[in-house]
Design brief:
With 203 residues, this protein is mainly beta. The protein has helices at 33-43, 114-122, 128-134, and strands at residues 20-21, 48-57, 62-73, 76-82, 88-95, 98-103, 108-111, 144-147, 153-160, 163-173, 180-188, 191-202. Strands 1, 2, 3, 4, 5, 6, 7, 8, 9, 10, 11 and 12 form a twelve-stranded antiparallel sheet that branches. The longest helix has 11 residues, at 33-43.
């Protein structure tokens, strides 16, 4: 099957400047009231959006793109992958029980599971269902995780269907309240997904 995403040059990873704070050690206890409060503050966000740089690296392919993520409700979100010229390579619109992908030729694909569909169409097994939580700095269903000295996620390890994803947060955006990730990397075997968020808009 022809992949929907064309390989994009490294220039797509150029980022605008943003204010970040580096996670530091030693970490704090996951049982701390500060961590519980931070999680609650993040979960209270009803709408948010972020944009930045996306990279998927594996033995089979390397994909670099700009991305735009917009969450309009608890289970409603929109994801765009863009080339360096700003043209849309892929648009994903997801809501409960339904997901639609539109490619760069305007062809539409629909399914009930966004994660499964994007994996089949692009060859990139992106853990979207968990990433929706991880991109906010929440552990989701993971119980194996560590915090930094400011009561934010620093690492996550999550195993599902025999595959273990490890997430490492290297920076947070200090301009947002609550503080949200600005740089993170996911690994699973030989696969790596890198996300660098330029900024966040939250409500």
């Amino acid at each position: 099957m022809t992949r929907l995403i064309r390989l994009l040059p490294l220039a797509a990873l150029v980022l605008t400047a943003c204010t970040v704070t580096q996670p530091k050690g030693p970490g704090k206890s996951p049982d701390s009231p500060q961590w519980r409060q931070h999680q609650q503050d993040v979960r209270n966000l009803s709408q948010y959006q972020t944009r930045g740089a996306f990279a998927y690296l594996s033995d089979e392919q390397k994909v670099y793109a700009r991305f735009f993520w917009q969450q309009t409700g608890q289970d409603n979100y929109r994801l765009l992958l863009l080339n360096p010229l700003g043209s849309t390579e892929l648009e994903l619109i997801a809501k409960p029980g339904e997901a639609q992908i539109t490619d760069n030729k305007g062809k539409h694909y629909t399914a009930t599971d966004a994660e499964e569909m994007i994996g089949k169409l692009t060859g990139m097994p992106i853990p979207l269902n968990s990433l929706r939580q991880w991109i906010l700095g929440l552990p989701g269903d993971a119980t194996d995780y560590q915090l930094d000295d400011q009561y934010r996620l620093s690492q996550v390890s999550y195993t599902q269907n025999g595959k273990t994803w490890k997430v490492v947060y290297s920076a947070y955006d200090s301009n947002t309240r609550p503080s949200l990730p600005s740089n993170m990397e996911l690994t699973q075997g030989s696969q790596r997904i890198k996300l660098k968020m330029d900024n966040w808009i939250v409500k």
